[in-house]
Design goal:
The strands form 3 sheets. Strands 1-4-5-6-2-3 form a 6-stranded antiparallel β-sheet. The chain contains 27 helices and 13 strands. The relative contact order is 0.11. By secondary structure, it is an alpha+beta fold. This is Spindle pole body interacting protein. InterPro entries: Actin_polarity_regulatory, Afi1_N, Tripartite_DENN.
Length: about 800
């Protein structure tokens, strides 16, 4: 059961008028209730075909209740949140290893692919299949190649969570034994409830987030080398070495694998694997601070190189003090004091792995996004399919309402995004290309559709596979696979979308399952005849999936003045402009992150409009159990100004903001088929679970800060309406974590297409020039709190001189008035 279930924006969840196109997906782990902690789980390269809680897509009738309850452990949004002391992401005393297994496979001319060594223990599962994955097709034609694949454990999430809790309890018990004996002996209950230095809060938050994600995958990075030798059969020796890790940043092990595999060719013994295993697991990451999910969002959305540097400084200071304490208590000869350096870029943590007396520098990402595995380039993926399309546009001959949302000339990247969101079967084919390029395209596509908010893609992705595993592959609905065999292209029944990497073209299968007519599409066809209809939307009088209208190729024509109702053309133009201007990989990822966030928010508005409720949005309206109007001793009431603000319609709204009702209906109608395709997928139901957990962790739950910021950004508000918004924000944002929540709104407040300079605190700072004195001074007080915040100081520095001068004027005027006895001058 989820730790918290927020309320829906309306009373009842939506009821889908049509069933899902695909069966419920196979889980990544078997829910074995009788399993014990001592049982060693086995691993498999394909998800188990038994169902689990995390992969079954529930129907509307069995969707869990989303109403809030005071009996649940929910922190009131009005309760103060203290700033947490920095804690490491990977403590020194943690029992979790960086690398779990190291494998070596080779190709034998008589027996085929064989597994030579496994360290420290056999990995379990089908060793023959693992050996085949480690030795991809045509690998003998290349001197070196890389592959990536995932292994699924048959351990339930409850077992994983309980094991982490047991490890933490054991570490706390060991620490208590080292304390002075004058202190009373701690009981077992004290050990369970010990929250010293906020460790329990930070780790409980991580447990809450991980509780909805199912058992973690085991990521495998594999290196294949071919050594030509005339003294052996076929004139070459082919060997592969793989590292199996829980960390999704597995690309950091590439230089170590290069050194280790060369060493294994010289010394093909188990000791070579043991040396690598000990080296990587001795990597010290204890100075990498743990960030809250709000802080991770802020860091991912910013390119400031010293953001949250204070946390790294605190970690180093704590380590230095600990080293001094240890050296003073040690009676033996003192060792030279170790020096610690701060990172030059806080987005990455620098460490060193010593392998065979060779120091290998390693860079660890500080904040990890969902569905981001390895090192890939979105720019490379976009250019692969955008360049041929720009040079010679070719209309799609096969149309589908979920995919070609802008007609037959829909941009290929948009078609790929739509296919990922609507859970279509996708293959990336790279004939005569290294398997590493195919795997990189699959990993980039998963990150493209996730945006750091959605999940369910990598768990059903196969960065590399071959024809021998086609039967197992076809049993996985909505798979994303990378292949090099051209035979896949001729079997159109195996896939829904084929992405040809050598040619840069995308093809829709003629045998793709057609989309049924849904209530959402029918709603706009019947009740909004003046709005632009979704391209190729099913007609109520035609068969499902058949295009209607007089447009080109059976697509309905777009009304004049609405040349880009979905906004996809402008979005892709903005992305390609960023690539042309060489703004970097981070800028491109940020644009797709904002696109996914906007899509989620307009999907919630779509559900509210069509079905009367949305399961992907929640807030506490006035009168809810923890709203100010019904505050109790357990949930104290905030400031009086906030109580009055709830009665103001300018503050009580929620959701995405459009400049007009016509613009809202136009955009919802254009995106209807894409939204309906997404709401029947595993990523949609996963997001419902993730959102309920994230919502429970928000320090402010009774105001939609994003909605209020969007109003300031997009609407022309009057003096009183803007004053209500400014006063509500100032009265609500007080503590460190509440400022973090507001900064995350600033970070994701700028549109994916627009003026990139007008973001951050710009629209909040306009309140410094408001006609009302109380608004100006309240905004100045809020800006001052942000100005001294660890991350907020960078937002303050990004403000223009005019806004900073306005802040100085308000502060000085207030000081002069107070010195003059409170008289207005």
């Amino acid at each position: 059961m989820l730790p918290f279930e927020p309320s829906l924006s309306m009373a009842q969840p939506r009821q889908h008028s049509s069933t899902s196109q695909t069966a419920s997906i196979a889980p990544a782990a078997v829910m074995s209730g009788g399993a014990t902690a001592s049982r060693r789980p086995s691993l498999a390269s394909f998800p188990s075909r038994k169902q689990s809680f995390y992969d079954v897509m529930p129907s509307a009738t069995v969707r869990p209740s989303m109403r809030p309850s005071l009996s649940q452990s929910v922190r009131s949004p009005t309760m103060p949140h203290r700033k947490r002391k920095p804690r490491p992401q990977y403590p020194q005393d943690s029992t979790e290893r960086h690398v779990e297994y190291i494998l070596v496979a080779s190709f034998d001319i008589d027996t085929g692919s064989i597994m030579e060594h496994q360290y420290p223990t056999p990995i379990g599962g089908d060793e023959q299949m693992l050996a085949e994955l480690m030795l991809p097709d045509q690998t003998h034609l290349r001197s070196q190649d890389w592959t990536v694949f995932f292994l699924h454990k048959d351990q339930s999430p409850e077992e994983e969570l309980q094991q982490r809790r047991d490890d933490r309890r054991q570490r706390r018990a060991e620490k208590k034994k080292l304390r002075p004996e004058t202190k009373p002996v701690a009981t077992e209950a004290d050990m369970d409830n010990d929250s010293e230095d906020d460790t329990e809060d930070a780790e409980s938050e991580d447990d809450a987030v991980k509780s909805t994600q199912g058992p973690p995958l085991v990521y495998v990075l594999n290196l294949v080398n071919t050594k030509h030798d005339v003294n052996v059969k076929r004139g070459a020796v082919v060997k592969a070495m793989a590292i199996c890790t829980r960390h999704s940043f597995l690309h950091i092990y590439k230089p170590l694998l290069l050194l280790a595999l060369e060493e294994y060719f010289r010394t093909p013994t188990i000791d070579t694997l043991a040396s690598l295993y000990e080296s990587v697991n001795n990597m010290d990451l204890s100075l990498l601070p743990r960030l809250s999910f709000q802080e991770r969002y802020i860091l991912q959305a910013s390119d400031v190189k010293d953001l949250f540097l204070e946390k790294f400084e605190a970690m180093v200071h704590k380590r230095v003090q600990q080293d001094k304490k240890n050296s003073q208590s040690d009676d033996q000869q003192q060792t030279p004091r170790q020096r610690y350096a701060l990172p030059r870029d806080t987005h990455e943590f620098d460490s060193v792995v010593k392998y065979n007396n060779i120091p290998v520098p390693i860079k660890i990402p500080t904040a990890l996004s969902l569905e981001t595995v390895g090192d890939f380039s979105l720019i490379k993926l976009i250019q692969t399919f955008s360049t041929p399309h720009s040079a010679s546009p070719q209309p799609f001959t096969q149309h589908h309402p979920h995919l070609t949302t802008s007609g037959p000339l829909t941009h290929p990247i948009i078609v790929l995004m739509n296919a990922l969101l609507s859970q279509k079967r996708i293959i990336f084919i790279g004939h005569n290309l290294p398997s590493s390029e195919v795997a990189e395209a699959v990993l980039a596509a998963c990150s493209l559709a996730s945006g750091g908010f959605l999940r369910g893609f990598t768990r059903h992705a196969f960065p590399y596979t071959d024809l021998t595993k086609i039967e197992d592959l076809l049993k996985v609905p909505g798979f994303i696979a990378g292949v090099t065999n051209p035979a896949f292209a001729t079997h159109t029944e195996w896939w829904d979308l084929m992405c040809d990497l050598p040619t840069g073209r995308i093809r829709i299968s003629p045998k793709i399952e057609q989309a049924p007519l849904t209530e959402g599409v029918l709603f706009f066809q019947q009740s909004a005849p003046g709005m632009p209809q979704p391209f190729n939307a099913p007609s109520p009088v035609s068969s499902a999936g058949t295009a209607t209208g007089a447009g080109m190729g059976g697509f309905p024509s777009i009304p004049s003045g609405a040349g880009d109702p979905t906004g996809d053309v402008a979005f892709m133009s903005s992305v390609l402009a960023s690539i042309t201007e060489r703004r970097g990989e981070g800028a491109v990822r940020s644009k797709f992150r904002l696109w996914i966030l906007k899509f989620i928010r307009i999907a919630a508005a779509f559900e509210e409009l069509v079905y009367g409720a949305s399961a992907i949005f929640a807030y506490y309206p006035p009168g809810s159990p923890i709203s100010p109007a019904t505050a109790t001793m357990d949930f104290p009431s905030p400031m009086t100004v906030l109580d009055a603000a709830f009665e103001d319609p300018a503050v009580a709204g929620h959701g995405y903001v459009w400049p007009s009702q016509e613009a809202k209906m136009r955009e919802l109608a254009a995106n209807a088929t894409r939204i309906e395709g997404w709401t029947k997928t595993r990523s949609y139901y996963n997001f419902i679970q993730d959102f309920s957990v994230m919502f429970s962790l928000r320090p402010i739950q009774d105001l939609d800060l994003q909605h209020l910021h969007d109003k300031l950004t997009k609407l022309r508000l009057g003096t009183e309406a803007s004053a209500s918004i400014y006063l509500a924000l100032c009265a609500r944002v007080k503590t460190y974590e509440q400022v973090n929540q507001l900064l995350s709104v600033f970070a994701y407040g700028s549109p994916a297409v627009g003026n990139d300079r007008q973001h951050g605190m710009f629209y909040l700072s306009l309140g410094l020039m408001h006609p009302r004195l109380d608004v100006r001074e309240s905004v100045a007080a809020l800006v001052d709190r942000i100005r001294v915040h660890e991350a907020g100081r960078h937002f303050w520095a990004a403000l223009g001189r005019f806004e900073q001068a306005a802040f100085d004027r308000v502060v000085l005027a207030k000081a002069e008035r107070e010195e003059g006895g409170g008289l207005l001058v």
